[in-house]
Amino acid sequence: METEERIMRVREVRRRLVREGPSRTRPPGLDFETVALPERDCDLLRDLLIAEGTETVVEVGLAYASSALAIGEALITVEPSHPRHVVIDPFQESIWSNVGWDLLLRAGLGSIATLMLAPSSIALAQLAAEGLIADAAFVDGSHRFHEVFVDLYFLRKIVRPGGLIVLDDNWAPSVRTAAGYYEHNLGWIAIPDAFASGTPWTIGTGLTAEAVPRCRAFRLPDPSFEPPFEEFRPF
């Protein structure tokens, strides 16, 4: 199958998912609309990965595969010799009834995607031990601070210096606080324009309310470094 045909196949699955929703969802009925990354943010994620010439991506959280399909489209468009998309979701079978993985297969992405059904803290440690080097990562797993922090800890070891880490649900205090450590202490550089036109979310209420993009992208420093412990900066 030619590259253009493969891209069109992925786009058609993406369009149907947006238009019709997934074939099955967990309750309540609006779960898909709440959980899935909106189409406009998926397009921005795809375009960012294409612009970076991304060849290997690690994704934490699959669910209904909206972001995974966008990542797959980016990898096919870049057309590297060995594209790889590692997807981690311990609940894909038990909670999501494999709906996301089935959509990836339907889109013809089974040849480049691998699904790991382990908690991200275990799966990412395994990938780091195996020496996987990724160009980018997309994180939409647990939103508990300690688990986001651990995800970012291991992804820093996996994503190459100068690579990208994109976080979903940037509005959540736990996610923003976890990312804050890496931004203020380890030199991660926010890319404010990457999702500036994406879905806005409001933090706070009244006069203190602030609208922020749902997703936030960071570029890792190149070269990477380990700061002296005496230089810890509160975040």
What is the fold's blueprint, element by element?
Blueprint: H1 3-20, H2 31-35, H3 39-51, E1 56-60, H4 66-78, E2 84-88, H5 99-106, E3 113-116, H6 120-130, E4 134-139, H7 145-158, E5 159-167, H8 173-185, E6 189-190, E7 200-203, E8 210-213, E9 216-219
Parallel strand pairs: 1-2, 1-4, 2-3, 4-5
Antiparallel strand pairs: 5-9, 6-9, 7-8
Helix pairs in contact: 1-4, 3-4, 6-7, 7-8
Characterization of this structure:
The longest helix is centred in the first third of the chain and has 18 residues. This protein has a single domain, classed as 3-Layer(aba) Sandwich (Rossmann fold), CATH 3.40.50. Helix 6 runs parallel beside helix 7 and helix 7 crosses helix 8. The protein is built from eight helices and nine strands. The strands form two sheets. It has a seven-stranded mixed beta sheet with strand order 3-2-1-4-5-9-6, with helices on both faces. It has 235 residues and is α/β, with parallel strands linked by helices. The relative contact order is 0.13.
Compute the number of helices.
Answer: 8
CATH class placement: Alpha Beta
Shape: globular
Tally the structural domains. 1
| Lateral arrangement of strands in the main beta sheet | 3-2-1-4-5-9-6
Helical amount: 40-55%
At the fold tier of CATH, the topology name is Rossmann fold
**Alpha-carbon distance between the two ends:** 49 Å
- Structural class call reads alpha/beta
Integer average pLDDT: 95
Taking pLDDT < 50 over at least 5 consecutive residues as the criterion, the unreliable ranges are none
Task: Give the strand content.
Answer: 15-25%
Major sheet details: 7 strands, mixed
What is the CATH architecture term? 3-Layer(aba) Sandwich
Taking Cα atoms only, what radius of gyration do you get, to the nearest Å? 17 Å
